[in-house]
């Protein structure tokens, strides 16, 4: 069977710790990059397919031009990232600009924000579908592909190790580098199953503080918290929201909430139900006087706006909003 786009990618489930090899067998650990998941198909050219099945190759003319390095009949799974040449680092904001540009604008951005494809799996080679092969064999094929064809930037082989100690070092140290947010854990014996959450992802999480500016739910039964930080002028900016609160945490928060004053800075503001979603949350504004200690991963936009829901650790009744890190200074 020859694979044709669109193909649903295999997925990963978020976990708090590495699964026991006794339950899932020998494990491989890959670095997890903060980019756009994409499948690359070659057949006299290049097709880039997103996880949602959309085609985005016209947004990345530099990848199209570099497709001549790749043999035909190939399907790679990986992550598209963008390098900010001025800042000298990977940039998700820059990647969003690349993904939204076409034509001359897309071509112009290839200089300041060049794209890279970080390959971590191979689903087809020489027109032969490889989904049933175990990860161990697919990884060996992928490494041989890069070595045999001497693939170079923008084609990049995702770092992998079978050493849990090295993987832990990646999780604790490498995630301090912009663009790296954790590790993905894959059983070595596992075939590639489109749409199945058979991999495991661990994101580095840091503890910091934010101000509770609104809630979803009611004052007596909050469902989740909408968080903010003040800028240097004292104006509150949204920075994210929590995951749904546990019942005990909801009761604790409810006992400290106060109804918002008429001059609340978020009056009239709308909040998306999720990052990138057009659906809106029904929210209740509260007096921005409570400080929450949160656990958050490293996926942040400008100013430290969290793209994924954060976790409430506790209320910081000993802190004032003025002691919370300022908006625009990063995640804090």
Summarize the helices and strands and which ones pair or pack:
Blueprint: E1 11-14, H1 21-24, E2 27-33, E3 36-42, E4 46-50, H2 61-66, E5 74-84, E6 89-90, H3 92-100, H4 103-112, E7 115-125, E8 128-129, H5 135-148, E9 155-157, E10 160-161, H6 164-172, E11 180-187, E12 197-203, E13 205-217, E14 222-230, E15 236-241, H7 247-254, E16 283-285, E17 291-297, E18 300-301, E19 305-306, E20 311-315
Parallel strand pairs: 1-12, 7-9
Antiparallel strand pairs: 2-10, 2-11, 3-4, 3-5, 5-6, 5-7, 7-8, 11-12, 13-14, 13-16, 13-17, 14-15, 17-20, 18-19
CATH top level of the largest domain is: Alpha Beta
CATH superfamily of the largest domain: DNA ligase/mRNA capping enzyme
Q: Total domains, how many?
A: 2
Provide mean pLDDT, rounded. 92
Major sheet: 7 strands, mixed
Low-pLDDT stretches are none
Count of discrete alpha- or pi-helical segments spanning 4 or more residues: 7
Order of helices and strands: EHEEEHEEHHEEHEEHEEEEEHEEEEE
Structure class: alpha+beta
Shape: globular
| CATH fold-level topology of the largest domain | D-amino Acid Aminotransferase, Chain A, domain 1
Distance between the termini: 50 Å
Q: Tell me the total number of β-strands.
A: 20
The CATH architecture assignment of the largest domain turns out to be: 2-Layer Sandwich
Q: Return Rg in Å.
A: 22 Å
Q: Share of helix among residues?
A: 10-25%
Range of strand content: 25-35%
């Amino acid at each position: 069977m020859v694979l044709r786009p669109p193909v649903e990618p295999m997925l990963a489930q978020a976990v708090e710790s590495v699964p026991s090899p006794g339950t899932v067998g020998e494990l491989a650990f890959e670095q997890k990059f903060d980019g756009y998941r994409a499948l690359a198909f070659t057949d006299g050219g290049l097709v880039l397919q997103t996880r949602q099945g959309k085609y985005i190759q016209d947004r990345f003319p530099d990848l199209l031009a570099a497709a001549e390095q790749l043999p035909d009949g190939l399907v790679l799974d990986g992550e598209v990232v963008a390098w900010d040449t001025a800042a000298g680092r990977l940039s998700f904001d820059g990647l969003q600009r690349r993904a939204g540009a076409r034509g001359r604008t897309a071509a112009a951005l290839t200089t300041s924000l060049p794209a890279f494809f970080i390959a971590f799996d191979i689903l087809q080679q020489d027109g032969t579908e490889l989904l049933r092969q175990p990860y161990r064999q697919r990884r060996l094929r992928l490494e041989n592909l890069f070595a045999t064809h001497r693939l170079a930037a923008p084609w990049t082989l995702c770092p992998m190790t079978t050493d849990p100690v090295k993987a832990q070092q990646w999780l604790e140290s490498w995630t301090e580098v912009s663009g790296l947010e954790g590790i993905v854990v894959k059983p070595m014996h596992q075939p590639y199953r489109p749409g199945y959450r058979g991999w495991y992802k661990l994101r580095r999480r840091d503890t910091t503080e934010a101000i509770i500016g609104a809630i979803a739910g009611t004052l007596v039964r909050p469902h989740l918290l909408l968080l903010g930080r003040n800028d240097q002028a004292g104006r509150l900016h949204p920075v994210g929201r929590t995951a749904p609160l546990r019942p005990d945490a909801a009761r604790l928060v409810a006992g400290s909430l106060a109804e918002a004053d008429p001059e609340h800075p978020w009056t009239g503001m709308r909040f998306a139900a999720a990052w990138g979603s057009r659906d809106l949350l029904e929210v209740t504004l509260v007096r921005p006087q409570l400080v929450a200690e949160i656990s958050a991963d490293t996926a942040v936009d400008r100013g430290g706006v969290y793209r994924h829901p954060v976790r409430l650790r506790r209320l910081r009744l000993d802190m004032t909003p003025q002691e919370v890190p300022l908006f625009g200074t990063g995640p804090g």
